[in-house]
Amino acid sequence: MNKNETAFRNFLENKMNEDEKKIFLEKLESSKEMKIEFEKINKIYDLVQKSKTVTLNSDYTLTIIPRFRERLVNDNKASFISKYKYAFAAIFILFTTYLVTTQLLNNREPNLQKIYSELSDNEVSYFVTDLGIDLENEVDDLVTEKIDSIYNEKLNENFSASLSENKNKIITDDMNLTELDNYLSDNDIDQLYTELLEKKIL
Amino acid sequence: MQDANNDVELIKSFLQGDESAFNRLVKQYQEKIYWHARRMTGNHLDADEILQEVLIVLYNKLKTFKFNSSLYTWIYTITNTRSINFLKRKKLRTFLSLGDIKNQANESENIIADLETKQKLEKIEKALQKLPVKQREVFIMRNYDDLSYEEIAKITGKSIGGLKANHFHALNKLKEMITDE
Questions:
Q1: What ipTM describes this predicted complex?
Q2: Could you read off the pLDDT of B57-87 as tens digits, one per residue?
Q3: Which of B35, B117, B164 has the CB atom closest to A1's CB atom?
Q4: pTM above the 0.80 mark?
Q5: How many CB pairs under 8 A join A and B?
Q6: Best to test chain B binding among A3, A47, A71 (most B CBs inside 10 Å)
Q7: What residues contact B130, with CB distance under 8 A and at least 6 apart?
C-alpha cells in the first residue's frame, strides 16, 4: 500500500489540523516525486467529488416506483406460472398417456358388446350356432391337413436321410439288392445295372 | 439515528400491509442504489435494471431483515451483489454474442442536465470500467461511499489486507489512465 495515500486522503478530506497540514505541505514542496503523485491523486479525487454531486433528473426518478409496481405484478404472474409449470406438465403428460393408451386398446380389441347390441336375435343365433359349428369344422379340416402335410414332409426327409446313409451299403451288399428293388422303378434298376456293367464292377 | 428509527418504523408499517411505507423507503434509497449500480456498470440502462431488481428483492425479503445491521448496509450489500452478478451475466452474454452490444453512453444524457458534470462523470466512469471488478468494487466503496476497510470487509466478506491491495492497484491504474488522457 502507498505510504502517502493516507496523508493525501486526510489532506484532501480536510481531516488534518493546522500543524499536520503545515508538515504535509513542507514535505510536498521538498519532494518532487511526492508532488507529482499528489497532483495525480488530486485529479482523481476532484473527478470523484464532482461525480458524487450529480443528482438524478426528476423525470427519471418519478418513473422508478410506477415501473417497479408494474414489474412486481408481472413477476408475481411469472412466479405463479414457474411454480406450477412442472405440475401442469405432469398432469398433461398423464392425461395424454391415458388418452393414447385407451385409444390404442380400443383399436386393438373390437368392442364385442357393441357388435352384439347392433345384431338381431336371429343374427346372433346364426353366428353362435351355425357359423360357430362351420367354423369349428373348418378349423378341424385345416388342422388335419396341416398335420398330414408335416407328417409327410418328415417321412420324406427321414427316407432321404436313410437312403443317403445306406447308399453304399445297398450298392455293395447283395442281400440288400432285393430290398432296393422295393424303392426303385424298373428304369432306375436298368440304369443302375448298366452303369455297374460299364464300370466293370459286375 | 433518526433515519434508522424512521427505517424501522417504515419497515414495520410495510410488514403490516402499508404499501405506501415501502414507496417511502424506495424514495429514500433509490438514488444510493442507482449510483452504486451505475458506478459498477458504467451506464444508465444497466444501473436502472439493477435498481429494479434490487427493489424486487427488497420487497420480497424485507420480512427477513433482522435489524442486526442498518438498513442502508443491508441494501448496499444486496445492490453490490446484484451488480456483480449482473456484470457476470452481461460478460457471459457478450461472450456468447446474445446480448445487445450497442454503445449505451448516450443513454445518460436524459438523466444528467449539466454538460460539464456529465463530461466529468463519463471520464471517471470510463476509467472505472477498465478496472477489474474486484478493484472497482473496493475503489467505489472507499471513495464514493466513504466506507472504511472494516465496513467493506463486512459487506464483501473479503480480508482487509486483500481489500487494501486491490485499492492500491486500482488507484495506481486510475492515476495512469486519468493523467494519460
A1: 0.84
A2: 999 999 888 888 889 999 999 999 999 999 9
A3: B164
A4: no
A5: 80
A6: A47
A7: B173, B177
